[in-house]
Amino acid sequence: MYHLRFRQVHLDFHTSPDIAGIGEKFDRKVWQERLKKAHVDSITCFSLCHHGWSYHPTEVGKMHPHLKFDLLREQFDAAKEIGVNVPVYLSAGLNYRASQEHPEWNEYSAEGKGPNPLHAGFIKLCFNTPYLDHLCALIEEAARLFPGANGIFLDIINQGQCCCSWCKRGMLEAGLDPMKEADRIAYSRKVLENYYVRTTAAAKKYDPEMPVFHNSGHITVGDTGILKYFSHLELESLPTGGWGYDHYPMSAAYSRNLGFDFLGMTGKFHTTWGEFGGIKHPNALRYECAAMLANGSKCSIGDQLHPDGELDESTYELIGKAYSEVEAKEPWCDNVKSLSEVAVLASSAANHKRETAGDVGAGRLLLEGHIPFEVVDAEMEFSRYKVLVLPDDVRVNAALKAKLESYLAGGGKLILSGGSGLDAEQDAFALNLPLTDAGWNPLSPDYIEAAPAFAPEFAKTPFVMYLPSRRIKADGGESLGKIYDPYFNRDFRHFCSHQHTPYRPEPSGFDAGVVSDRILYFAHPVFSIYRGFGMVSLQEFVLKAVRRFLGAELQVKAALPTTARVSLLEQPAENRAVLHLLFATTINRGGAGLNIPGHPFGNSRPVEVIEELLPLADIETSVKLDRPVKSVRLVPQGKEIPFETKDGRVRFTVPELLCHQMVELAYR
Ligand SMILES: [Zn+2]
User: Fold this and answer.
1) How far is CA 176 from CA 124, 168, 169, 170, in A?
2) What is the mean pLDDT of residues 1-5?
3) Residue 579: exposure state from Cβ atoms within 10 A (0-12, 13-18, ≥19)
């Protein structure tokens, strides 16, 4: 396994040809001092940018017209001299220069949409054109010129349903019909596979051990066929750039199980890439890096270098605040494995989607409930988990049915909701659940009057559920509550008030869900509803049911607010577990849709901001561990704290949590 360093910077350098004086303020000493002060130990530098310019002399491409020296060589040698790694970046999917010199290499959509000549922005190239030969030659040249590079980073790796002349001809030769979307998608996958084969070989031409990463902004759950072309993973997830603060834990929860070392990639920006002069509060970056450690990964911070080549002073002070903390924490964060006993079987993989509301909602509820979890696809091993969550729309085919039945027979437990567990081919449950089923409720929104054990503290009366439920009756388990139907569905025939039709006075006779020893089933797609609406009432209802279902198996109990995060990792070689507690308050600021002329997003959008970090005190905590513990210490401070072990749980009080606290549980 390729082993990554902890403190990386991804130094974007997409630079217009209309800007002069490229790299003229580059100074070896300043470069080295800024990196050292920022505690950076790896920096990804540019061979080739989205504009299509090279930052070193080239025989294949074209050096930036206003660059007079070998900038990458200077950056590279200056970093290496102080022991900083340098992966080399090449833009693959975007190359504006090539797109203008060879418009025939651009991607063309089936609707006949090509690049808009008046659009100020990059143009996606097709990997099925001679552009791929050009790209591979550029990659080979960079690998030859920079033999000590710590990896080749290739960016913008995707292929649309292209209908350029090469793709049309290729589809016909392969017996596919360019008029059919399914055929276009199938062909684009073939094109992408060829891209992976060719570019990976180009990157490794002079060194078969050269690390390679292909970035498409996301690690798609279930898309494991491409991983043979990767040496490690870089999980792009800029919380303020549209990904949000809950994307990273989900993405990491899947990536942890792919057998790679990986890093999280955030940005120093207030919003996202390409924001010159955008800078976030240091507390936000401290939290983001801590969250990467807590999720078992290394860190990378995105920056954009000014065309003059000088690293921005405030940016590297900002990075230093986060990375000095990371450096102190590293001994407890390397070579970790997760101890999570709960796994979410991703509905995105089951439904061939990049992301689903059900997965995100399940992730959020587990994060808010402080229940450590992994994300798995149907090909992965289930037996290491005590509980498997199937969010909302995981339909079950014959193979999955056999796998789930054997998982249950081996002592596993399932949490299902809405349409999860239904047969892939028909509208009936494929699994033997403790319920009778009467299909989908035609009336919506309906309402839940939760059974007392599961009722939210503040909602004993029926609360609204925004998406339709499955009409089930508990049969062999305990009911989670009663469903109340509305009088009618709101439509042109009849409606009531501004939003929902009220509930009828009598319950419908159906149950809100059922819990038995092995099965917890929610009649609604509770996870999608939570993703969509974020109701606290629903969160309490679901978490009460989940906690009851887990019982003594609940791994971590911590008196923390729902905005805090908890993870439990193990360092087998160090013979210890490490509990991570994280806390920050995020708030949406901005918005209003102010028009920004010429801006790619068009208008101002809300941004999730972290500013102040507030301390939490005296957090009563207990952790269920299979191993006896000899000491409990706050790390990296090194302070031992008293603990007791009872009923298989290690109990202690964390005196203070400010942003991030690790607790080392040393095995006896
Ligand atoms: Zn094409």
Assistant:
1) 23, 9, 10, 8
2) 95
3) buried
pLDDT band for position 189 (cuts 50, 70, 90): very high
Torsion sign across C-alpha atoms 354, 360, 366, 370: positive
Determine the residue type at 609. Answer: V
Q: Take residue 366 and report the two structure tokens written for it.
A: 């587990």
User: Which stretches of 22-137 are assigned E, i.e. beta strand?
Assistant: 42-48, 53-54, 62-63, 88-91
Q: Residue 228 Cα, ligand 1 centroid: separation in angstroms?
A: 24
Ligand 1: distance of its center to the CA of 54 in Å? 24
Query: Hey, what are 328's tokens?
Result: 């102190």
Instruction: Name the CA radius of gyration of the chain, rounded.
Output: 27
Output the CA 127–ligand 1 centroid distance in Å. 7
What are 424-479's pLDDT values in tens digits? 999 999 999 999 999 999 999 999 999 999 999 999 999 999 999 999 999 999 99
Chain segment 369-391, per-residue pLDDT in tens: 999 999 999 999 999 999 999 99
DSSP 528-564: HHHHHH--HHHHHHHHHHHHHHHGGG--EEE---TTE
| C-alpha of residue 68 to centroid of ligand 1, in Å | 35
Residue 603 is predicted with a pLDDT of 81
Residue 133 alpha carbon to ligand 1 centre in Å: 14
Say how many Å lie between the CA of residue 255 and the centre of ligand 1: 31
Ligand 1: centre distance to CA 242 (Å): 29
Rounded to whole angstroms, the Cα distance separating 244 from 372 reads 19
- Cα angle 507, 508, 512 (rounded to 5 degrees) comes to 85
**Ligand 1 centroid – CA 159 distance (Å):** 8
For residue 113, the model assigns a pLDDT of 67
Q: How far is the CA of 139 from the centre of ligand 1 (A)?
A: 21
Do β-strands 298-304 and 342-345 pair in parallel, antiparallel, or remain unpaired?
Answer: unpaired
In this prediction, residue 599 has a pLDDT band, given cuts at 50, 70 and 90, of confident
Q: How far is the CA of 169 from the centre of ligand 1 (A)?
A: 9
Q: Answer whether residue 353 shows pLDDT above 70.
A: yes
CA of 188 to the centre of ligand 1 (A): 8
Judged against a pLDDT cut of 90, whether residue 44 lies above it is answered with yes
Say what the pTM is: 0.96
Report whether the peptide linkage leading into residue 452 is cis, meaning its omega lies within 30 degrees of zero. no
How far does the centroid of ligand 1 lie from the alpha carbon of residue 163, in Å? 5
Could you tell me the distance, in angstroms and rounded to a whole number, from the CA of residue 76 to the centre of ligand 1?
35
Q: What is the number of other CB atoms lying within 10 angstroms of the CB of residue 147? A: 9
pLDDT-based confidence at residue 502 (cuts at 50, 70, 90): very high
CA 104 to ligand 1 center in whole angstroms: 9
Residue 215 has a pLDDT of: 96
Q: How far is the CA of 99 from the centre of ligand 1 (A)?
A: 13
Cα 420–426–432 angle (5° rounding)? 55
Q: How remote is the CA of residue 107 from the centroid of ligand 1, in Å?
A: 5
Give yes or no for a contact between 298 and 5, defined as CB atoms under 8 angstroms apart: yes
